[in-house]
Each structure stands twice: as structure tokens, then as C-alpha cells.
Specification:
Blueprint lengths: L9 H23 L1 H5 L5 H23 L11 H22 L4 H8 L1 H14 L5 H20 L11 H27 L2 H22 L6 H8 L1 H18 L2 H4 L5 H14 L5 H18 L5
Helix pairs in contact: 1-11, 1-13, 1-14, 3-9, 3-10, 3-11, 4-8, 4-9, 5-8, 6-8, 7-14, 8-11, 9-11, 13-14
Protein name: DMT family transporter
Keywords: Membrane, Transmembrane, Transmembrane helix
Pfam families: EamA (PF00892)
């Protein structure tokens, strides 16, 4: 007896896209907490550089198992992949630098503006259209993110000396927004393996100098733990690429706010940090916004 499968509807496609990005964001939340897991023995650049090495090793292993050659990954999109890697790396570097000059919670709040920025960029460059139901999901998620950041003490003590680092953080958010658009474009043009290889190779190159300039701990066993984050980051990137391939950036972009939810979960389960009622309310609003976005029909 044959089994028939119901055809995929536009709503189902958006739901799949959002679930992919949620899984990818959850995995990245673990990586972003890697510095806290490891203590103060390694710089952010060092951890990221070693993660890229572990990620590249993972990709090459998978390619070997599948019998794929590196030549098959190289195509006319290499320059765009480099631009995507550069916007992601330097956007992250800008936020890391700003965090050293002003409160981290304030930098995080500014950095999350990239979610808001990526929406008009999608309209301008990708000709996306925002529907009323979509706006409702975006607004709900944004309010939820705002509630969480305010509960963490964002901008409760702002000094005039913060203007320059705040500008740097804002520049980082702009770069991350452009990276989101490039992920969408490249996910439609190239396969996931090609995107993963390019971003890890270019990221490794871009992170090499700042990593060695800020290298803190040379113990091999200590540094080996960061290599193990490579497969985790590769899995996260794979799910995010799949999500961006399935839906518009205006659908999947706001899902990045779930990073705040997963960060709170990591803090609770691994470090005994009890989330405040405001964090729970904010997380609920973000989840509600995600459900609304799942109901938006894809183009």
C-alpha cells in the first residue's frame, strides 16, 4: 500500500525555516557561552579562530566521507562568500571591541538592532514584502527582546564616553544585517556545503591576526576544547543556512531574538542563573512572535 504525503504549503515552509533557525540559534548559544565555560584563559578571537579550525576539519571530513572534491565547492560566488565572512567577522569584532569600552548589556542591545535593520534591507535588496501579520510577529518579538534587555539593565547608566564605542557597536550591527542578506542570497545560489567551506576558510584567514595578537593560553589540552566547538558551529550554520533558504529574511531574521531565550536557558542550566519574571515574559513574547511568523504565507 502506498503512502501519500501532503504537499508542502507556504505556511509549512515558513515553519520549517523558523525551526531550522531556532535549532541553529540554540547551538550557537552554546558556542557563545564557550568563553564562560572555559573561564578567562582565552580571548574571544582565540576561541573563534580555534572554532574555525575545528569547523574546517569537520567540513573536510564530511566531504571525504561523501567523496566530494574541494574543486566542486569553488564557483563564481567565492567573492560574495568572502564578503559574507568579512561582514560577519568584523561585525562580531566591532561588538567585542565595544564590549571592552562600555557595559556588555548595552552593546548586546545595540547589536540586536541588526534584526530590525535586516528587514528594510530585505525589502530594498531582495524585494521582499512585509504583510500585516508579519509585522505583528516582528513587533511581538522585538518587544519581547526589549523587555529582556531592559530587565538586564540596558542603558541604565549611560556615560558620554560611551558614544564612540556605541557607534562602533552600531556599525557592527549594520555589518551583521548585511551578512543576513548575503546568507539569504548565497543560500539560494549555492549548496550548504559550499557556503560552510567558504565561510570557515575565509573566517579562519580573517581571524588569524587578531587571534595570535591576543593569544593568552598556549596549553595544548586547554586549547583543544575549543576545536571541539567546530562541529557544533558547523551544525548551527547548516541549520541557519537551511532556514534562510526556505524563507525571507523578514521571516527568519526576527527569530534571532531567540538567542536571548537560549542564553537565559544556558545560564539557568549550566551556571545556576535564575531568570527574572521579566525575562520569562520577554521570552514568552518572543515565542509568540515566532508562532505568528509561522502563520505567514511564504511568497
Amino acid at each position: 500500500m502506498s503512502v501519500t504525503t501532503a504537499p508542502e504549503t507556504p505556511v509549512n515552509r515558513n515553519t520549517r525555516a523558523i525551526l531550522n533557525v531556532v535549532i541553529g540559534t540554540a547551538l550557537f548559544s552554546l558556542f557563545f557561552a564557550s568563553g564562560k565555560f572555559a573561564g578567562d584563559g582565552a580571548s574571544a578571537f582565540q576561541i573563534t579562530f580555534l572554532r574555525y579550525i575545528g569547523g574546517l576539519a569537520t567540513i573536510l571530513t564530511v566531504a571525504k566521507i561523501k567523496g566530494l572534491t574541494l574543486r566542486s565547492f569553488i564557483g563564481p560566488s567565492s567573492k560574495s562568500h568572502f564578503l559574507r565572512a568579512a561582514t560577519g567577522c568584523f561585525g562580531g569584532v566591532a561588538l567585542i571591541h565595544a564590549s571592552s569600552e562600555m557595559p556588555v548589556v548595552d552593546v548586546s542591545t545595540i547589536g540586536l538592532l541588526y534584526v530590525v535593520m535586516v528587514i528594510p534591507l530585505g525589502v530594498i535588496f531582495l524585494k521582499e514584502r512585509i504583510w500585516p501579520l508579519q509585522w505583528a510577529g516582528i513587533v511581538l518579538s522585538s518587544i519581547g527582546a526589549g523587555v529582556i534587555m531592559v530587565s538586564k539593565g540596558a542603558f541604565q547608566s549611560f556615560d558620554i564616553a560611551y558614544f564612540l564605542p556605541a557607534g562602533v557597536a552600531l556599525g557592527g550591527a549594520v555589518l551583521l544585517a548585511f551578512e543576513g542578506v548575503l546568507i539569504r542570497v548565497l543560500s539560494l545560489r549555492d549548496g550548504a556545503m559550499s557556503s560552510l567551506l567558504h565561510v570557515n576558510v575565509f573566517g579562519l584567514i580573517l581571524m588569524a591576526v587578531p587571534a595570535f595578537a591576543t593569544w593568552e593560553n598556549t596549553d595544548l589540552v586547554y586549547n583543544a576544547q575549543f576545536l571541539l566547538w567546530g562541529p557544533v558551529a558547523i551544525a548551527a550554520q547548516f541549520f541557519i543556512i537551511q532556514g534562510y533558504r526556505l524563507a525571507d529574511v523578514s521571516i527568519v531574521g526576527p527569530v534571532d531574538y531567540t538567542w536571548l531565550v537560549f542564553a537565559a536557558a544556558v545560564g539557568f542550566f549550566f551556571f545556576g542563573e535564575i531568570p527574572s519574571p521579566d525575562v520569562v515574559i520577554g521570552a514568552s513574547l518572543i515565542a509568540a512572535g515566532g508562532v505568528v511568523l509561522c502563520l505567514v504565507k511564504a511568497r
